[in-house]
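Sequence in, structure out.
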Amino acid sequence: MQHFQFMFRSLPVAAVAIANLIGCSGSDNGGTNGSGGNGGASASGGVSAIGGNTSTGTTSNGAVGGSVSTGGAQGAPIAGLQPQTWIWVPFADAYCRDGSTTGIGINVNPASTQLMIFLEGGGACFNEITCGLNPQSFGASDFSTYASDVQYGGGAGIFNRNDAANPVKDWNFVYIPYCTGDVHSGNNSTGAIASLGPQKFVGYANIGQYLQRIVPTFPGVTQVLLTGISAGGFGAAANYIQVANKFGSVPVYLLDDSGPMMDSPYVPACLAQLFIQNVEPRQDHISRLRK
């Protein structure tokens, strides 16, 4: 519990520091005071269902098995996947903020009917300073490095199939990388940052593209966990509705790790508004999530 107390105390301090750095007043009292969001909250019955009816066989962490072509039309399952092996699946219609294409990683366990979708973290891009700390591209070579990392990447933590304490070790895994700078929540393909030029803030739109292929790839799934850390936590919350809608009657659970939605005074209103304007100028779904 001490770790989580420290985490939530540190978030407002970091937000004020960023606001001061970019000339956005930390004393701005606009907006509605928030309660700190629902970090770690669940939907459709809570996260206690993690574990469920997983298979109990011994599994390996799996090797990195290259990439497959997405092939086919939207709505077709992804072919060429290998059991308990990380596979990179490129999408021609999913983009990073620099305009390059990206994709997803998949690691299947045919013995399981449960699926975890994990959204990567990595900060946010809404001015020259923050964008400089934020990944602007992610492709097959980046994924190969990530998937083979047994300390911090695709063989560690929640992806570790050899850890008996990991409640999802036997599940199917989908890894969604982060390169859109919009906490996976944008639908603005014509964004721009002063001094940096055009930016594609299309994280939300990308996930819509991925779901067109993920859902038919797992036709027998009985349970879905949507989760992510930091920017991925924000993204998991922002995308919960579209993910749940795509899976229909299948229960979808949300675990938001370190991505609570915060308002003033915890996050200066001018900073929050600057970010929202860059991510989604037409449909303020992030603000709606706060209500």
